[in-house]
């Protein structure tokens, strides 16, 4: 009887993991450049005396859906969308190099160029810093141009170039912070051929309708396993009553 209960328990844990991944995807359905988490279930067999017939269900996030989101023109000078598989190089909170598809860039009060979620954007000399300017824009090659305060709008100045990398041939993984990193603490080489779609933003690739269906399926799976545990308890009680000696 414990085999049934143990299997159901691990299946319920898998349903919880699936619900967590789906909820995170739904929460980021409007986040620019977001890549949906992909969860997958697998069977883990237990080995040892008396355990070979027992299996544990495991469901965890194994990767990210790298399909492109929809690119929408915004007309905003600091909005950029990466073409193809290109990734924007940013600095993670721990100071390490990381990568993102998020292109809703903004200038912090300190002049630091960051993504919409606050990660510093990396240029050729480190984090990109924008001096006081009347206008700032980014071209398709990632070059950052400014019109200095009081300067001639027809004579913009280049201050830096965004670092862009392409993960082709590299093993990258998505972290809990939503940023991509190379497995094993490696880094991606810069891709001089990578290009941007300027004054545009790439949306999330999460399909809200599909995510809602997945959440309903995970909920039904939870209910099924819960009923199985309840049935196992009833059968165990019935068996115990049957084996009682008459007085």
Written account of the structure:
- This protein is α+β, with helices and mostly antiparallel strands and 247 residues long.
- The chain is 25% helix and 30% strand.
- The chain has two helices and 18 strands.
- The strands form eight sheets. The protein has a three-stranded antiparallel beta sheet with strand order 6-5-14, with no helix packed on it. Strands 11-12-13 form a three-stranded antiparallel beta sheet, with no helix packed on it.
- Helix 1 (2-27) packs antiparallel against helix 2.
- The longest helix is centred in the C-terminal third of the chain and has 35 residues, at 208-242.
- It is elongated.
What keywords describe this structure?
single chain; 247 residues; alpha+beta; three-stranded antiparallel sheet; 2 helices
What secondary-structure arrangement, pairings included, does this model have?
Elements: H1 2-27, E1 37-45, E2 55-64, E3 71-73, E4 80-82, E5 87-91, E6 97-100, E7 106-107, E8 113-114, E9 122-123, E10 126-127, E11 133-138, E12 143-148, E13 157-161, E14 164-165, E15 172-174, E16 180-182, E17 196-198, E18 200-202, H2 208-242
Antiparallel strand pairs: 1-2, 3-18, 4-17, 5-6, 5-14, 7-8, 9-10, 11-12, 12-13, 15-16
């Amino acid at each position: 009887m414990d085999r049934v209960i143990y299997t159901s328990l691990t299946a319920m844990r898998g349903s919880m993991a699936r619900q967590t991944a789906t909820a995170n995807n739904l929460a980021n359905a409007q986040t620019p450049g977001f890549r949906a988490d992909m969860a997958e279930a697998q069977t883990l067999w237990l080995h040892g005396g008396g355990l070979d017939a027992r299996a544990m269900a495991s469901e965890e996030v194994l990767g990210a859906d790298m399909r492109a989101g929809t690119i929408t023109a915004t007309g905003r000078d600091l909005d950029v969308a990466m073409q193809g598989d290109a990734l924007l190089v940013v600095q993670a909170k721990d100071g390490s190099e990381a990568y993102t598809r998020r292109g809703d860039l903004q200038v912090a009060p300190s002049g630091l160029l960051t993504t919409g979620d606050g990660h510093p954007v990396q240029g050729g000399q480190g984090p990109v810093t924008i001096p006081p300017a009347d206008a700032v824009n980014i071209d398709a090659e990632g070059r950052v141009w400014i019109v200095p305060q009081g300067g001639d709008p027809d004579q913009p100045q280049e201050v830096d170039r965004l670092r862009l990398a392409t993960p082709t041939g590299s093993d990258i993984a998505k972290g809990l912070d939503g940023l991509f990193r190379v497995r094993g603490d490696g880094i991606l080489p810069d891709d001089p051929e990578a290009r941007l779609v300027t004054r545009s933003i790439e949306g999330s690739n999460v399909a809200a309708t599909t995510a809602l269906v997945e959440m309903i399926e995970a909920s039904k799976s939870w209910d099924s396993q819960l009923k199985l545990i309840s049935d196992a308890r009833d059968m165990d009680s019935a068996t115990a009553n049957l084996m009682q000696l008459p007085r």
